[in-house]
Amino acid sequence: MVNKINLKELAEFLVEAKTRTYANVNAKEIKPQRPSFKEIEYKKGRWEYRDSYCGFFFAIGQEIVRYNKEPIWAMSYTGGIGKKYHGDVAFAKDTFGFLKKALAKVSTKSPYRGPKSYSLGDYKYINTIKGDITDFSGTEKIYYKAKIVFKQEYIGGLIIKK
Q1: What are the tens digits of pLDDT across the range 104-150?
Q2: In this predicted model, what pLDDT tens digit does every residue of 24-71 receive, in sequence order?
Q3: Domain of residue 129, residue span
Q4: Model pTM score
Q5: Are 84 and 95 spatial neighbours (Cβ–Cβ below 8 Å)?
Q6: Ordered DSSP codes for the chain
Q7: Strands 47-55 and 123-132, sheet pairing
Q8: What are phi and psi of 56, to 5 degrees?
Q9: I need a surface site. Which of 57, 74, 108, 153 has the fewest CB within 10 A?
Q10: How far is Cα 10 from Cα 123, in angstroms, rounded to an integer?
Q11: Strand-pair category, 117-120 with 38-44
């Protein structure tokens, strides 16, 4: 299956899917496969993308890409707002709003989360990545007025069958 996947097409599809789902303020949730999760989906031709997550201040999630209905790529993530800010819904919503703007800057060179860095007003996003589309891990952080307020870890790559 690995030899049949065009990695350039996969990267292009990931960017398209990510900018039309969580990073898009107009994205619509779908009925989740797992109770109490939020899920967003994007389909184009033979490609399917699903982002499934639960939590708010601290969350876990998983993104799956299917090609011809077969899972071929996945990413898992976990993290969230610092404990000091748990309970501050307004601040969390502002921070997640900034996160969505950073994630909308995803590129085919690094189609996992956002860019290496992005700033807007008092917010700054920093993303550290190791690996490539086939096998990667990373950490993203958001700073507000130079203090870290959000941290998330992620890992993923191609799904290799027997």
Answers
A1: 999 999 999 999 999 999 999 999 999 999 999 999 999 999 999 99
A2: 877 888 999 999 999 999 999 999 999 999 999 999 999 999 999 999
A3: 2-158
A4: 0.92
A5: no
A6: -GGG--HHHHHHHHHHHHHHTTTSTT---B--SSTT-EEEEEEETTEEEEEEEEESSEEEEEEEEEETTEEEEEEEEEEEE-GGGTT-HHHHHHHHHHHHHHHTT-BTTB-SSS-SEEEETTEEEEEEEEEETTEEEEEEEEEETTEEEEEEEEEEEE----
A7: unpaired
A8: -135, -75
A9: 153
A10: 30
A11: unpaired
Where residue 4 falls among pLDDT bands split at 50, 70, 90? confident
Number of neighbours of residue 20 by Cβ within 10 angstroms = 17
Q: Is 25 exposed, middle or buried (0-12, 13-18, 19+ CB in 10 A)?
A: exposed
Residues 6+ apart with CB under 8 A from 36: 54
Rounded to whole angstroms, the maximal C-alpha distance in the chain is 49
User: Residue 5 in contact with residue 90, Cβ under 8 Å?
Assistant: no
